[in-house]
């Protein structure tokens, strides 16, 4: 089956951010996500899941273990389990990216209260 944003399960998160579930198995999750300008997610970590982000459009900023990593269109970044992190769109344009998690991170997300 061919998957795209047009035929995949969709949900919203955060402040008007979108996610399309392109693949979801017990060992792998692939999502395409979109974040409007000036949005970010909450600081969190995953105990088991490793995540790989690939930027399709725009420039994202990742905060991983209190370090800042700008990641541009066509670039990627990996986040190891137990790493405290969040993604932020600090630009004036929307960003779009793939997030690939092994295993899926849906039930493996621990938010950090600040």
β-strand amount: over 45%
For this structure, the CATH topology is Jelly Rolls
The overall average pLDDT, rounded, is 96
The profile of the biggest β sheet is: 6 strands, antiparallel
Gyration radius, in Å: 13 Å
Helix content: under 10%
- Give me the number of helical elements: 0
Distance between the termini: 43 Å
Task: Give the overall silhouette.
Answer: globular
Instruction: Say how many strands there are.
Output: 11
Largest sheet, spatial ordering of strands: 1-2-3-10-5-8
Q: Give the full name of the CATH homologous superfamily.
A: Jelly Rolls
The CATH class assignment is Mainly Beta
CATH architecture: Sandwich
Order of helices and strands: EEEEEEEEEEE
Low-pLDDT stretches are: none
Q: From the helix content, strand content and strand pairing, which structural class follows?
A: mainly beta
Number of domains: 1
Organism: Chryseobacterium rhizoplanae
InterPro entries: Cupin_2, GPI/OXD, RmlC-like_jellyroll, RmlC_Cupin_sf
Protein name: Mannose-6-phosphate isomerase, cupin superfamily
Domain Cupin type-2: 34-100
